[in-house]
Amino acid sequence: MKLRLYNTLIRKKEEFRSLKKNKVGLYCCGPTVYNRAHIGNLRAYIFEDVLRRVLEMNAYEVKHVMNITDVGHLASDADEGEDKMILGAKREGKTVWEIAKFYEEEFNKDIKSLNIKPPTISCRVTEHIKEIIETIKKIEKNGYTYESDGNIYFDISKFKHYYNLSGHKPNDEETEARVDEDSAKRNKSDFVLWFTKSKFGNQDMQWDSPWGRGFPGWHVECSAMSIKYLGEQFDIHCGGIDHVNIHHTNEIAQSEASTGKHSWVKYWLHNEFLVMDKGKMAKSAGEFLTLTNLEKKGYNPLVYRYFCLGAHYRQQLKFSWEGLDGALNTYNRCKEKIIELKEKNEQFKETEYQEEKTEEYMASFTNAINDDLNTPQALAVMWSVLRDEEIDTREKLALLYRFDDFLGLGFRSYFRDKVDVPKEVKKIMAQREDARMHKDWQKADKLRDRISEAGFMVIDTDDGPKIEKGE
Ligand SMILES: [Zn+2]
Q1: Spacing, Cα 251 to ligand 1 middle (Å)
Q2: In 10 A of CB 57, how many CB atoms?
Q3: Distance from residue 29's CA to the centre of ligand 1 (Å)
Q4: What's the rounded Cα separation, in Å, for the pair 465 and 425?
Q5: Which of 127, 251, 266, 315 is deepest in the core (most CB within 10 A)?
Q6: What is the pLDDT of residues 345-379, one digit of tens each?
Q7: Residues of the chain above pLDDT 90, percent
Q8: What pTM value is reported for the model?
């Protein structure tokens, strides 16, 4: 099956055709580095990584660009609220520059431990102020801006395709409800391109511009940097579904207003939220979970990756500890089976496989991922292969490695740890088994926590529990 992707712009799946032969330009909205990424944000980067891998499996060379928002921005998607970076700096008694540098590094660590391929180009906003100013100058020259109360605004009434991506109508309640009143605006959805009148007196990050000393609005960085690295038209733009109504809508307006060309981006892909019992997980909503929180509780970050792959990216994924434990058990069973295969094939070299059945499995896997990245289906095919006792074990391993080029679960690096288990831990293991026999799950969980506190990890396999050194 040829690659088909769901394009938000036309609200259906369509066959993917790149603008240039065998090459894809991919832009993904990156993090605002004023705090750690929460696991809901990280779901978006896992989805984008999976997208990149499916393109690569379809023999495209992908140029993947992501911005790092290291300037201060406002606390909501609209141009309102408090500045996020200043809030972070106040909270930690650091300068905004230190905050940005620290959290960018933390973000890169998270990405690495989730086995997400680093973008071809990561671009910091503070290093692209010149390009941002040039973009605003072009938008201004083409007649889409006005100055009001010291700031430069984009006039959405001048841009006739403004509601194409969101599918909303002007004055639609859903859009307008998210934009707060600002008496300086001509239209409610107008937005700032350049601030000279900061609400924050001691704003550290400011630059000279034709409109006065100040700093860019949030949306314009993505237009300026994507065009710089990917050209005036490129293939795919991604982000969380929360970006559709405002951020991505504004990006399109700015980009097309600056270049004068329609169809800036051909395919728009959006991932759904990770939801908690209480609703969407968001940094601005206060409490949130980070990858470090999960690691502290003994979960390998790849277990979280596995958990995300278990749901289609366009479906909301409900986070619960029980759900994560389910992913942990399945991930560990899969890991165990791969280690067993490796042990049976110590001299294994990755070569082409011969059997017809292996080809059939590869075709089912490709069909699943080419159907708008159907990761749950791809995992189901992987499990059929793991359970199939009829295929040659060498072919099986070769096939699973091919699958992992897409899944990114790190099959090639699985090895059995040689572990000396202290007596005390063995005793807790036995108690846990006893609790499980009596279906006392709460007690069993507590005992597992004690085992992980001691630096070990229990893996429940088909042949009973096994123990490994903790991750
Ligand atoms: Zn963006």
Answers
A1: 7
A2: 17
A3: 4
A4: 13
A5: 251
A6: 877 777 666 778 899 999 999 999 999 999 999 99
A7: 61
A8: 0.85
